[in-house]
TrEMBL record:
Swiss-Prot/TrEMBL catalytic activity: cytidine(1402) in 16S rRNA + S-adenosyl-L-methionine = 2'-O-methylcytidine(1402) in 16S rRNA + S-adenosyl-L-homocysteine + H(+)
Family of this protein: Belongs to the methyltransferase superfamily. RsmI family.
Residues in Tetrapyrrole methylase domain copies: 3-203
Lineage: Bacteria, Pseudomonadati, Pseudomonadota, Gammaproteobacteria, Pseudomonadales
PANTHER family in the record: RIBOSOMAL RNA SMALL SUBUNIT METHYLTRANSFERASE I
Single GO biological process annotation from the record: methylation
NCBIfam families: 16S rRNA (cytidine(1402)-2'-O)-methyltransferase (TIGR00096)
Function: Catalyzes the 2'-O-methylation of the ribose of cytidine 1402 (C1402) in 16S rRNA.
Cross-referenced Pfam families: RsmI_C, TP_methylase
Organism, scientific name: Stutzerimonas nitrititolerans
Keyword S-adenosyl-L-methionine: yes
Protein name: Ribosomal RNA small subunit methyltransferase I
One Gene Ontology molecular-function label: methyltransferase activity
């Protein structure tokens, strides 16, 4: 059988593609791409003429068989998405799963990934972190999700659409508190790259005051919850005991 290569492509700056990625993309029989027109431009830039076939969230499950039969016939296939690492808030999961289940070798070609780029430059604890992908688009769902994450001690990473970034920061401030440290990574690796780190209330005000900060692609890195220290901790414990006791009252 052939090999399925899972190949990371740039998240903006075309220099971020690896030498290995370029070689593999040129050598495989077929490239499965999220958006063939988008990827055609990337390949053209690098003079790669390998045929492209669509593999996006709407056809991935059905089309998986098509790629699988090519792999089983001994051909090598590369999987790419529009930007960054496939399967990271991008299609590819079903194909990789099907390939592995069929005993096809799956080889990752690591490279650009917006969440890792943001985390690596945010200056927030990076020894443990949680990637939350996109929060629910609607306010109620977003609030519910944030409530569940409020006491998460690990650094949190979110992807967000530019037209929702302000709403998202407002909800983060309301649920996590004004003082929680956060970093907004915008247009990473591109001309207008910004990495702004401020407590949530100030970051929200900064984005609110400057419409340019609501354009382009963004990642939010938010510091994890820190257990209160000293008197605050005692207050918290006392409050919890009181809440329990009150709950027991008729
Ligand atoms: N697979 C991609 C990766 O490896 O990062 C992510 C794909 S997801 C559909 C697109 C989201 O990733 C954007 O909405 C944004 O949150 C984030 N993103 C992608 N490129 C970015 C960039 N250059 N700067 C900041 N965020 C970016």
């Amino acid at each position: 059988t052939g090999t399925l290569f899972v190949v990371a492509t740039p998240i903006g700056n075309l220099e971020d593609i690896s030498a290995r990625a370029l070689r593999v993309l040129a050598e495989v029989s077929l490239i499965a791409a999220e958006d063939t027109r988008h990827s055609a431009r990337l390949l053209q830039h690098f003079g790669i003429t390998t045929p492209l076939a669509a593999c996006h969230e709407h056809n991935e499950r059905d089309q998986g068989g098509r790629f699988l039969s090519r792999l089983q016939a001994g051909e090598d296939v590369a999987l790419i998405s529009d930007a960054g690492t496939p399967l990271i808030s991008d299609p590819g999961y079903h194909l990789v799963r099907q390939a592995r289940a069929a005993g096809v070798r799956v080889v990752p070609l690591p490279g650009a990934c917006a969440l890792i780029a943001a985390l690596s430059a945010a200056g927030l604890p990076s020894d443990r972190f949680v990637f939350e992908g996109f929060l629910p688009a609607k306010a109620a769902g977003r609030r519910t999700r944030l409530e569940q994450l409020k006491e998460e001690p690990r650094t949190l990473i979110f992807y967000e659409a530019p037209h929702r970034i302000l709403e998202c920061l407002m909800d983060l401030e309301a649920v996590f508190g004004a003082e929680r440290p956060a970093v907004l990574g915008r247009e990473l690796t591109k001309t207008f790259e910004t990495l702004k780190g401020l407590p949530l209330a100030q970051l929200r005000a900064w984005v609110e005051a400057d419409g340019n900060q609501r354009r382009g692609e963004c990642v939010l890195v938010v510091g994890g919850w820190q257990a209160p220290q000293g008197d605050e901790a005692v207050d918290g414990q006392a409050r919890r005991v009181l809440e329990l006791l009150l709950g027991e009252l008729p």
